[in-house]
Design a protein that fits this description.
423 residues; mainly alpha; globular
Length: 423
Amino acid sequence: MENILKSRWFSPAFLLVMAASVVIVYSGTFGASFHFDDIPLIVENTTLREMKNFFGLLRGERGVTMATFALNYAVGGLDVFGYHIVNTAIHIINAALAYLLLTATLTKCGMTPERSRKIAAFAALFFALHPIQTQSVTYIVQRMESLSALFYLASLLAFVKAAGLNAKLGKIALYTLVAVFYILGFYSKEVAVTLPAIIFLYDLFFISSLRLKGLAKRWPLYLTLLILLAYFIASTIIPAGGFGDLSEELTKNAAPISAGFGVSGISATEYLFTQFNVIVYYIALLFVPINQNLDYDFPISTGLFQSPVVRDGAVLNIPITMPIISLIILLIIIGIGGWLLLRSRKDTAGTGTGNSNRSGGSGRVAAFFIFWFFILLSPTSSFIPIIDVIFEHRLYLASLGFFTLAALFIDRVFSGSTEKLSQ
């Protein structure tokens, strides 16, 4: 096994095997019909049917994704096969980007290239083949989620590559790509808005070795990202009321508000309390992906210390308890992330090297991806109400945090390594 991991052909061979596995797993869905939001956004959306509308689509809400639907229509009309092929290809690219990102990150933390590849391969396979991704891949309109994730990962990878370069022109080119991919990700779906926070954390954890002074070297990039963030919030998120279903706005039909404080039937407080239970339910699905559903009948929590009423017929995998219990569970997980980070800082300081290539070991990687999970979910699992309180596709990129932790755990248990998790 060690010799295989050392081979220069391991990564390309692994990526080919992973791609083939995804195609095999999802091949049975290539004929699946349009459903729900597919109808107004694609089937009944006449603006997709003429390429003269292409640049107009790009300028609209989630314009990058809508433009890809127009290209699909230009090639194959409403034949669902082409739409599924594109969705599956995007998912494969995302899994490959996840592998590259994790390999680079684990190597930065002092792991051997062989061990980095092994852990990254496990995490990328989990990401590629776990049933929780079904909705994001097979529900055609949720190309919005996966395409946004593609540009999100590409932007972060461009940042990582730029940080390792000495050539000034190369850095400028890659930092420009970071901003361009951020724009493309946001206009694929607004959940990409959190990218600056992830880049900041990645820089702090793995490049600047927890030294704020190190971040100052990249102030032009951070200024650019902050300007873009402010523009996105002012021009899109505030007018849209949040991160909800924008199908009605995209097809320019009059409809009730789907996100924001104007949502009827659930207050900001009730939505926040409900999300404590929703996030715990997401974690349960990641552990045991059964009874998956496109349209959950999830109970609304009206009080922090009150168990919500679960309606008859609702199929849920775990008991839905008082939100305070879920909140405690989530705080414990976040606390573990903080503890791992502090331990990694202490151990790194103890080496006296300050070498960014020994940026905290697997403990710091685990801490980062715990925070990753919550940051990626924050647009849809906060206090800004959305009509649908739970959707599996919202876990798409956030789940990479869970899968990385799972891969680190498997490596810890089965590799016989003597490295402590907090190294």
